[in-house]
């Protein structure tokens, strides 16, 4: 025992420690210092919390005080108008709602499917690792990049138009990474033991997913989806990029709606036309408005009238004081199904008489606008363009159940932006009111997410 | 305590390689071990063999060998315990029986486990051509930690039956009750079958899991350290249950607790470093092991 090296090492260490005074701080001093630091951090934390919350509160109060008085039934059920007091947010909120519908039905199945595949099926190899890293990266890509991609792919290549469908899919892509990540997190939170319990009874992979993993992760997934949607509902940049309208005074056609009905009921409109003329060197802006009070048009009793067609260079639109005259043509329209084609021909003829523009009509109600050097711009679908605005029934009859997908649209944040950029305080109040509505929508969605998570979570424990 | 190496068997070459040191703190033998004793009397003389493991090796992720050339007979309507120190491969071996390793990529089996080797309809459990789903339906498993589904007590037990296509009705209710009674938990849960399974205590949850495994009337139930997360009273109940169940079903149980192995099992297999060192009737293993390693392990000198 005497020659045990461990024991002698221990003794020499103890000697050395005993020889000199210890630098360890006395306990009461140590505690005193810690208490001061604790206290300081507590106060600092409170100050920062109060500061950040009061900035938020100030913003909300500012928004509410400017906009709350404008929020009434009329505001929610009126189209935008040149008259600030008569303007409303009917088309923007319907647009936001429908775009969100498309976004949800794109992003939810795709995102959940991809999440399940990556988490439950995919083998872990280099390829899937690259995919995983890039999904995380995609969530950080600026939203305007998604807009550019959608413009090239959906609008130009697949010719889906500047429609609700395009807008919805674009935002769907935008939030896809968030949904995928939320799905994977939710699946990962399920203990492996639960999976093994199900597999051990002879369940197949799909049965395990369908009967166990999906039900148990529903809380996490739906929270992620809702949070993602509440992000999408505030997006503007990608929608402007794909050509969402900034001012629109019609609603997308309801399923099976009578075609001619829509615009005739809204006389004070009509534009069609912030339609960007794709790659046309002469940057024409096309606007259409009625030259007289609207002809009353109801299903079954079509009537006729004339419209004023205005064509002017785009740069002029942004500069109201520009001297350049607007080219105006009056076109007679006949809103009966039989007269629609001749109306369109007259329309084309009027356009053709404008210098630098060459328009013709294809069979199947396709209006083509052609510049001198043969650049083409086609009004392929009626809601994005002129036919719709004119109330001409292309082919007559009723809209299909999904016709609204092809309709042009605007959304709440774009409408706000439009109003904010106008002179005068009246429109500012409108913008603030629209902002309040948007906040209510967003906060409401988040509240639903919280409640859902809490309630589903309570039913599931491991 | 007997520390002399026993050389009861000619086949046991491990014994000669190990020099037990009296009083040494560590007696862990790192020498290669033999493939078990050939006791003079066949321990399986009056049993019917339910499953037979033949030259089974198992590799994790394609390379790490966790089970090495194991031969083992699992007698019908009896309890066979797998004991051995942590990491010896006993749980890995157990999970070969219901192909749980198939769930993770890269795992590889070699050799065979023949289910019902003597009735002419023998099937190799670990053969790729054999359906893993079928094996899992015929061979149930109870896990280390109770893992009820976050569903009602009733649905937990009914799940295996539903997978077999049984719809709601009297038969489903009867079979669930039969399983819950079999797992000695019916009286505790009969009034709250619609309550969630996780609302039960740990011991009750484990018996619920046993009921779940029992409901599909399996040929074998695999127990993977079923009491390691339970208190002594709950453990006692599970052990009793295992004892009762063997008249209905063949049982293979992995345990860390040697007293448990001694209490509940009829046969005990000792594994060490991925190999099966010795298998015999439980009382022989604990009173008169043929292999020195086994003797050292059961007397608590390593593990």
How would you characterize this protein structure?
The complex is a heterodimer of chains A (about 450) and B (about 300). By secondary structure, chain A is mainly alpha-helical. Helix content of chain A is about 55%, strand content about 10%. Chain A is built from 16 helices and 6 strands. A 3-stranded antiparallel sheet of chain A has the order 1-2-3. In chain A, α4 (about 90-120) packs antiparallel against α9, α7 (about 165-190) crosses α9 and α8 (about 190-200) packs antiparallel against α9 (about 205-230). The longest helix of chain A is centred in the first third of the chain and has 41 residues, at about 25-65. The model of chain A is unreliable at about 260-305, about 315-320 and about 360-395 (pLDDT under 50). Chain B is built from 11 helices and 10 strands. The model of chain B is unreliable at about 1-40 (pLDDT under 50).
Let me know the CATH homologous superfamily of chain B.
P-loop containing nucleotide triphosphate hydrolases
Q: What strand line-up does the widest sheet of chain A have? A: 1-2-3
Radius of gyration of chain A, taken over Cα atoms and rounded to an integer in Å: 31 Å
**CATH level-1 class of chain B:** Alpha Beta
Low-confidence stretches of chain A: 259-304, 313-318, 360-396
Biggest β-sheet strands, sense, barrel of chain B: 6 strands, mixed
Helix content of chain B: 25-40%
CATH structural class of the largest domain in chain A: Mainly Alpha
- Described by the principal axes of the CA atoms, the overall outline of chain A is extended
Cα shape of chain B: globular
CATH architecture tag of the largest domain in chain A: Orthogonal Bundle
Query: Strands of the largest sheet of chain B, in order across it?
Result: 6-7-8-3-9-10
Strand fraction band of chain A?
5-15%
């Amino acid at each position: 025992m005497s020659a045990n090296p461990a024991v002698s090492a221990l003794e020499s260490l103890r000697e050395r420690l005993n020889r000199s005074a210890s630098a360890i701080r006395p306990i009461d001093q140590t505690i005193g210092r810690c208490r001061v630091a604790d206290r300081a951090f507590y106060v600092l934390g409170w100050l920062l919390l109060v500061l950040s919350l009061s900035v938020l509160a100030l913003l909300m109060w500012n928004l509410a005080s400017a906009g709350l008085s404008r929020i009434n039934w009329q505001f929610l059920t009126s189209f935008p108008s040149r008259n600030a007091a008569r303007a409303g947010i009917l088309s923007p909120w319907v647009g936001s709602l429908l775009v969100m519908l498309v976004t949800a039905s794109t992003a939810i199945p795709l995102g959940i499917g991809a999440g399940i595949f990556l988490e439950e099926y995919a083998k872990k190899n280099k390829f899937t690792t690259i995919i995983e890293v890039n999904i995380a990266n995609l969530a950080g890509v600026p939203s305007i990049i998604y807009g550019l991609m959608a413009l090239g792919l959906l609008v130009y290549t697949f010719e889906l138009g500047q429609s609700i469908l395009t807008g919805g899919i674009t935002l769907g892509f935008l939030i896809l990474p968030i949904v995928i990540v939320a799905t994977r997190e939710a699946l990962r939170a399920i203990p492996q033991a639960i999976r093994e319990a199900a597999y051990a009874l002879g369940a197949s992979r799909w049965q395990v997913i369908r009967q166990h993993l999906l039900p148990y992760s529903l809380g996490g997934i739906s929270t992620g989806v809702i949070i993602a949607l509440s992000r999408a509902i505030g997006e503007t940049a990608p929608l402007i990029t794909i050509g969402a309208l900034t001012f629109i005074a019609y609603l997308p056609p309801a399923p099976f709606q009578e075609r001619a009905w829509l615009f005739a009921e809204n006389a004070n409109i009509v534009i069609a036309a912030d339609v960007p003329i794709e790659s046309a060197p002469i940057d024409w802006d096309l606007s259409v408005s009625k030259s007289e009070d609207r002809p009353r048009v109801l299903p079954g009793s079509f009537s006729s009238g004339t419209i004023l067609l205005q064509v002017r260079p785009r740069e002029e639109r942004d500069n109201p004081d520009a001297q350049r005259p607007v080219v105006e043509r009056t076109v007679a329209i006949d809103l009966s199904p039989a007269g629609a084609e001749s109306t369109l021909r007259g329309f084309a003829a009027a356009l053709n008489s404008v210098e630098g523009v060459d328009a013709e009509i294809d069979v199947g109600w396709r209006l083509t606008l052609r510049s001198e050097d043969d650049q083409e711009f086609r009004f392929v679908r009626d809601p994005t363009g002129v036919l719709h605005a004119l109330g001409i029934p292309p082919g007559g009859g009723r809209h299909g159940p999904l016709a609204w997908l092809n309709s042009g649209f605007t959304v709440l944040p774009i409408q706000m932006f439009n109003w904010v950029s106008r002179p005068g305080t009246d429109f500012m109040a409108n913008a603030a009111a629209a902002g309040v509505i948007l906040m209510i929508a967003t906060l409401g969605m988040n509240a639903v997410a919280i409640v859902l998570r809490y309630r589903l979570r309570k039913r599931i424990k491991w | 305590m007997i520390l002399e190496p026993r050389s009861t068997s000619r086949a046991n070459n491990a014994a000669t390689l190990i020099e037990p040191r009296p009083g040494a703190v560590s007696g862990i033998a790192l020498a290669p071990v033999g493939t078990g004793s050939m006791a003079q009397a066949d321990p399986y003389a009056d049993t019917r063999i339910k499953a037979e493991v033949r030259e089974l090796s198992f590799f994790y992720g394609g390379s790490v060998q966790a089970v090495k050339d194991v031969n083992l007979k699992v007698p019908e309507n009896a309890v066979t315990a797998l004991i051995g120190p942590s990491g010896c491969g006993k749980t890995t071996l157990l999970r070969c029986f219901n192909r749980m390793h198939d769930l993770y990529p890269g795992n590889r089996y070699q050799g065979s486990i023949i289910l019902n080797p003597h009735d002419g309809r023998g099937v190799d459990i670990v053969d790729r051509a054999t359906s893993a789903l079928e094996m899992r339906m015929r061979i149930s498993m109870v896990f280390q930690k109770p893992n009820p589904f976050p569903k009602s007590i009733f649905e937990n037990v009914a799940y295996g039956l539903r997978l077999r296509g049984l719809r709601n009705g009297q038969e489903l209710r009867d079979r669930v009750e039969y399983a819950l009674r079999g797992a000695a938990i019916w009286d505790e849960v009969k009034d709250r079958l619609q309550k969630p399974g996780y609302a039960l205590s740990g011991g009750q949850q484990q018996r619920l899991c046993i009921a779940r495994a029992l409901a599909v009337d399996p040929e074998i139930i695999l127990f993977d350290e079923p009491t390691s997360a339970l208190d002594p009273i709950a453990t006692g109940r599970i052990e009793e249950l295992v004892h009762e169940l063997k008249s209905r079903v063949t049982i293979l149980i992995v345990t860390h607790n040697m007293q448990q192995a001694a209490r509940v099992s009829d046969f005990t297999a000792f594994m060490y470093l991925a190999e099966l060192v010795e298998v015999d009737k439980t009382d022989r293993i604990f009173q008169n092991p043929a292999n020195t390693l086994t003797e050292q392990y059961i007397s608590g000198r390593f593990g």
